[in-house]
Specification:
Helix content is 11%, strand content 57%. It is built from one helix and eight strands, in the order αββββββββ. The chain has an eight-stranded antiparallel β-barrel. Strand 4 and strand 5 form a beta hairpin.
Length: 123
């Protein structure tokens, strides 16, 4: 758990301009088509479901038959997410753009190069 919390805090701090959290204008909750790029340039697609859970969000991805789960917070203009996939973890920073979300992610075990995802809202 500690391995996930520290990278989330660092990633959130890097993308936020205000020191205090702001309540999101509108909700990022919904279902999204995911189009991503791995750090090695490989492409993938899938679905992300974002559920509001009080002051946090629960995000469930289904990509290539694999399911991963993350927990996020929306601060200022960034959805910061940490989660697990198999025996590893990941961190995301996503920003709203035209009703969708776009951002970057890092693998917590081999995270020296960033991947990217675009989430297109489907409902």
């Amino acid at each position: 758990m500690f391995r996930i919390v520290l990278p989330i805090a660092a990633l959130t701090a890097a993308f936020l301009h205000s020191p205090l959290p702001a309540i999101a204008q509108g909700s990022v909750a919904g279902t999204y088509q995911v189009d991503g790029t791995n750090p090695n340039g490989g492409k993938y697609s899938g679905v992300a479901v974002v559920e509001a859970t009080g002051q946090t969000y629960l995000i469930t991805w289904t990509v290539g038959g694999s399911k991963s789960v993350g927990r996020g917070v929306f601060l200022d203009k960034t959805l910061a997410v940490g989660g697990v996939l198999g025996n590893g973890g990941f961190v995301f920073a996503m920003s709203p753009k035209n009703g969708n979300l776009e951002g970057i992610w890092a693998d917590m075990q081999r995270g020296t190069t960033l991947g990217a995802e675009v989430w297109t809202r489907v409902k």
